[in-house]
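Appendix B. Raw example, untouched.
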Amino acid sequence: MSGFIHVARSEAKPFLFVLAVVAALGGFLFGYDTGVISGALLFIKPAFHASALQQQAIIGALLVGAVVGAAAAGYLAEAMSRKWTKVLSGCIYVGAALWSASASSAAELTAARFVLGLSVGTASFVAPMYIAEVAPRRIRGGLVSFNQMMIVTGILIAYIVDFLFKGVAGPRSSICSTPPTASSARSAPPSSSGSSTSRPT
């Protein structure tokens, strides 16, 4: 590790490291979106009244989208270059993130996470190629590994965020709470105040 840092300082410019980290942000988002859903389900299930199958679809949609995005990334990188493929995936990610945040049903959230998967799958596939193209030969392997490091960092940050929000009430808590029905009102025990009881004489 110290040898890599020494060679990197002598041969590479600081901007190159910034460029590698920015290019590897797709890996960070891939790891974050994969890990954060485990804690988000605590709020999604009551908010959307999601069944077990719907919860599985919400979780798996991102990975299915990532497979499709990675499969299409090679063609996109050849057709429009690695850099512009990264730009396109970033724009898609922003739109899909806003869509998932405003989703009003489990099906809509599943579709939004599928589009998120398209973005992160494409970005995580193209990022190592882009970094390898701009990195000097002697430190190419170390810079390319930034993508893998960012993936596991994203998973770690996602679990930390899940832990910090474990006791926070969801923004849809008022929507999830249902008003009492007539049957529940009739079944409620009478209040002790103001009630009169008759005693046999």
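End of appendix B.
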